[in-house]
Amino acid sequence: MVGVGLIVHGGASRDVRRLTSLARTINLHERANTVARVLAGLLAGGATVIRYMPEPDHIVERALEQLAAVGRRPDATVEVGPVRLAGRAEAGEAAGTTAAAAMMAAERLDCIVTIGGDGTNRAVLTGWRDAVLVPLPGGTNNAFAIAVDPTAAGLAAARYAAHAVAGERFVRRRPLLEITVPGVPPTIAAVDVAVVRGGWVGAHAIWDPDRLLEAIVARSDPTVAGLAGVGGVVHSLDGLPAALHLRFGGAGRAIMAPLGPGQLVPMAIRAWTVVHPGDVVILPDRSDARSRGPVTLAFDGERELVLDGGRTATVAVVPDAVRILDVAALLRHTAAVPSRGARAGAERARSIRSARRSGRRRSSGRSLLRAGCDPR
Amino acid sequence: MPDNDVLREMHHQMVRIRLFEESIQQAYLEGKTPAFDIAAGPVPGEMHLAAGQEPVAAGVCAHLRASDAVTATHRPHHIALAHGMDMKRLAAEIFGKETGLGHGRGGHMHLFDAATNFGCSGIVGEGIPTAVGHALAYKKQGRDNVAVSFFGEGAANQGAFHEALNLAALWKLPVLFVCEDNAWAISVPKEKATAIANNADRAAAYGIPGVLVPDNDPVAVYEVAGEAVARARRGGGPSLIEVKTDRLLGHFEGDPQMYRSPEELARLKDRDALRAFERRLIETAVLTAADAQATWDRARAEVDEAIQFARTSPYPEPAAALLHVFA
């Protein structure tokens, strides 16, 4: 089996930041198009099992229709289908993404291509911490994702899954943040943990700089928006397996913080420190008067956990926890030596083209309706 | 994030709406059995109640002035009350009495209130272009008012929805389109009627922002609506907000709801947004349990007084049958 998972989520660009910043909207057709391009790469790379997360927008089904429309629908040797979501996990919610990732682990798929925001990737890692990810941008801030062409991503994922290259050689490691709060199951964040003044989850997103008290960022990159970008403006971690603890406000160093897409706001950095593996940070800093009342923790850009009654959280950096496929390096290595799967695929394509030219084979214009898809 | 006064006021609105809907439900069912005769009893006609959808009304209307126009649907009571409609005149109209908003001629789906610039209709999608008209008037008059159209996910498939969004976007009008997605258009589930999963996505087709509020939570609605209203007031144009909300009762009173599973109905009851919000308010000491009880008692008294007013008000005189029905 050359098995790859696909998790794509339409909800990654529908939140309030469409109103509070210049956050983009990715319409369904474009999402489906990205998936179609990933699928083209997966199929060319010889994937034999492609399992995707079912969700209410039916994005993968739409992508398959786009492939069919250009005569590239996967043939019968490739199994493409949704994973079954166990229990009551609702497709389209974070719990569904987590359940889907867990199912992909149980089915022993080799890697997962994700198209979503930082929250989507966090939900995936919550379900399968050791997953090898190919995270494509599909959300508002996309600090976690890698910027590669979707077909290249699919091709690399399939070649990795086909063990065409020696396993870990092209898997890069990144740190993860582990958050522990008494009375609550431990949780993780792949990009950042922020402390927001006020005790309500509300519309989840963070957009008001006056409410931001502190943040711990596991990625600091001035080329992205969001808290990882803010971290990048303050201090570059430069690939160190560490995190940055930022304290905002007061009469600190003034920066132009890329809080959201197109949203550069002046913020003051009271203090910042590097958090190494083994260090433990307590949030919030209750010596700050603004943190004495209820606060809300946001994970990867989404408010999720209210800390009131003086409760605190401990945050630790786990180095080398997240596994990301290095698409560029893998493809450069395999470019000279096509995989068996790709060679067979190319031969099949040549034979189909020649059969069509000689009239022995009509183009496959079978509609998906006749192929047994539910017309909904 | 709303401050404590706003949180308490939203709680108060949601409580009085819930008690009103439950009281109207009881009054409606009087006299209609054994065979379900909708003409019988003190409240004739159909009845569509909004229990469960209080967070949308409370969260949006918290940002509105009485001079902002609001249009709504056949399920209007929660929005009417949250926007400041007089509860006695609302109840009297539902009972068909002369003291009602429409002198008893309109009934529960046709509520028109000049004092709060509120109108609603049983025609699916009617209020959407009407709100655009209000917004056009505000823009021409140079006012910073906004118009808000509340409609359901079924109405979003009507042509009027698409025409209204297009025109509002084209003319950059101060209007909010609020879609209450309660998953059921009468008995038709959304996935059987709508080609996409989220109406928020339709905003992109008109070049306006579309935001999904996936939680039936007044604070989430408050935060999103606040941004949209502020944007409209400063000339930033229209927005579309979609809220996943819960219709706790049937489409109409008397609806046996055979199309909904017992599991779904049980799940709905468990996640009653009003109870969840009240619990959070008490946990965070915004309210004490005694405060919460006092709010229920106050609302109970208000609702009882309104229903009593409606019951004891006179019917319109037959001789006046042709008054108030022609413009």
Protein model, in words:
The complex is a heterodimer of chains A (376) and B (327). Chain A is an alpha/beta fold. Chain A has two domains: 3-164 and 338-357, 3-Layer(aba) Sandwich (Rossmann fold), CATH 3.40.50; 176-320, Probable inorganic polyphosphate/atp-NAD kinase, domain 2 (Tumour Suppressor Smad4, Sandwich). In chain A, 27% of the residues lie in helices and 30% in strands. Chain A has nine helices and 15 strands. Chain A has helices at 17-20, 28-44, 59-69, 94-106, 118-127, 150-161, 227-234, 327-335, 340-357; strands at residues 3-8, 49-52, 79-82, 111-116, 132-137, 171-181, 184-189, 192-197, 212-217, 243-260, 263-275, 280-283, 295-299, 302-307, 313-325. In chain A, the strands form two sheets. In chain A, strands 1, 2, 3, 4, 5, 6, 7, 12 and 15 form a nine-stranded mixed beta sheet that branches. Chain A has a six-stranded antiparallel beta sheet with strand order 11-10-9-8-13-14. In chain A, strand 6 and strand 7 form a beta hairpin. Chain A is elongated, with a radius of gyration of 22 Å. Residues 363-376 of chain A have low confidence and may be disordered. Chain B is an alpha/beta fold and 327 residues long. Chain B has a single domain (4-307), classed as Thiamin diphosphate (ThDP)-binding fold, Pyr/PP domains (Rossmann fold, 3-Layer(aba) Sandwich). Chain B has ten helices and nine strands. In chain B, strands 2-3-1-4-5-9-8 form a seven-stranded mixed beta sheet, with helices on both faces. Chain B has a two-stranded antiparallel sheet with strand order 6-7. In chain B, helix 1 (4-29) packs across helix 2 and helix 2 runs parallel beside helix 7. The longest helix of chain B is centred in the N-terminal third of the chain and has 26 residues, at 4-29. Classes of the chains: A alpha/beta (376), B alpha/beta (327). The A-B interface holds A 10-11, 14-16, 18-20, 25, 27-28, 55-58, 92-93, 198-204, 208, 211, 294, 306, 308, 376 and B 1-2, 191-192, 196-198, 200-201, 203-204, 209-215, 217, 219-220, 222-224, 227-228, 231, 239, 280, 283-284.
